[in-house]
Amino acid sequence: MSGKPRLTYLNGRGCMETIRWLLAAAGVEFEEVYLETKEQYDKLIKDGFLLFQQVPLVEIDGMKMVQTRAILSYIAGKYNLYGKDLKERALIDMYVEGISDLMQMILMFPFSPPDAKEKNLDSIKERATNRYFPVFEKVLKQHGQDFLVGNKFSWADVQLMEAILAVEERVPAVLSGFPQLQVFKTKMSNMPTIKKFLQPGSPRKPPPDDHYVETVLKVFKK
Amino acid sequence: MSGKPKLYYFDGRGKMESIRWLLAAAGVEFEEEFLETREQYEKLLQGGSLLFQQVPMVEIDGMRMVQTRAILSYIAAKYNLYGKDLKERALIDMYVGGTDDLMGFILMFPFLSAEDKEKQRAFIVQKATSRYFPVYEKVLKDHGQDFLVGNNFSWADVHLLEAILMVEEKKSDVLSGFPQLQAFKARISSIPTIKKFLEPGSQRKPVPDDKYVETVRRVLRMYYDIKAN
Fold first, then answer.
1. Residue B226's pLDDT band (cuts 50, 70, 90)
2. Percentages (nearest 5) of helix, strand, coil residues in chain B
3. Chain B residues closer than 8 Å to A51 by CB
4. Tens of pLDDT along B39-72?
5. Which residue in A90, A126, A208, B207 has the most C-beta neighbors within 10 A?
6. CATH number for position B173
7. Could you tell me which chain B residue has the CA closest to the CA of A89?
């Protein structure tokens, strides 16, 4: 038992990737267990590891945590990435929830039926460009600080950075109308823990491919 | 300006209902502005009140808060319904995550076709009785306390009661295999603030009807083609 948090999920991004980002940004080393077969998943359920029969599962500080948001909130709280008071926490929560809605579209995208892929990609581009990125562009412009909330690195910055990169993978020029976000992206990339996470060999997972989609469908087949 | 929180939403449950429950449970009086027309919504948008162009929106403590989960977390923390430390908060967050997923299946129910409604009803009951209710039944049985977390009334209890009542509206005897939850329901319903909220004339909203669906579709110009799970 190493004392490090242990993540159980598929060998791919999905709902776990944001958790990997946050742990990495906080400089926390973690272990991973990859689900490859339905039998492994069924066994986890049978052995009572998964409170609601779902992954992500993160074993941390003696708890078997499930529910992505609960896990992220706990990590943010524990590693001081959640603002200095209730109002800063409220801002961080609003920002991460908004970004999470955008990320949800990206998460679901590989599972789109072929005839809906183009439409879904357009939606991602539209939402990022018209709904989400303008908000953070404005926040950064208005206070002129390096970080989104309270002039201090927080969960909100990590989640925005993840979202920017994820959208750019699908829509390469998406930041072209957002000079503040371009600067933000560069600054985040240079933060030591994030820089390390962005290097090859880190726990960061590649963009989902067909094999990943196949594995998800196989493991979670009813 | 009354100093009371002000809720901006449709005159119906939707995503705002959990917020109404939590404020009521905390004994906090609140005002409501109901969206009835597209013009009202566009005015809110143009005024820059909606951070991500969406409702729910709650004006509270000088903030215009959006994102249901953020609003609920703020209220829970402010009114001491969020446990005593990080670990209790983690448990509450996990439990609320579960009841939120369950209520999510019910949220879109009114927007479904008649045929899909039957399918969805069965789906809701199946998930409630095989995935969610057993968890809370076991939690209560294992510690034998009145409340889900830390022997103290919390957001998790309010959210679970709300979920139980909503599922019961879809199948009235759904708690028949869950004696702990039956006792829990009776106990939490009799807490004074909750009892008051459950009485006629409170700000609790009724089961969504066709008029509600029409209003949402008209104001948001969305949700015309929702499918069952």
1. confident
2. 60, 5, 35
3. 94, 98, 135
4. 999 999 999 999 999 999 999 999 999 999 999 9
5. A90
6. 1.20.1050.10
7. B74
Question: Does one domain contain both B74 and B117?
Answer: no
Phi, psi dihedrals of residue B169, rounded to the nearest 5°: -65, -25
Using CB atoms, which residue from B77, B86, B135 is nearest to A78?
B86
Domain limits, chain A? 6-79+198-211, 86-191
Q: Return the CATH number of A6-79+198-211, one of 3.60.110.10, 3.40.50.970, 3.20.70.20, 3.40.30.10.
A: 3.40.30.10
What is the identity of the amino acid at B220?
A: L
A98 touches chain B (CB under 8 A): yes
In sequence order, what E strands does A97-214 have? none
Task: Please indicate, yes or no, whether residues B90 and B177 belong to a single structural domain of this protein.
Answer: yes
ipTM for this prediction: 0.96
Q: Which of A63, A87, A98 is facing B90, going by the closest CB pair?
A: A63
pTM given for the model: 0.97
Q: Is B125 in the same domain as B147? A: yes
Pick from B51, B59, B80 the residue to mutate for testing the A interface (most A CBs within 10 Å).
B51
* Angstroms from B101 CA to nearest CA on chain A: 10
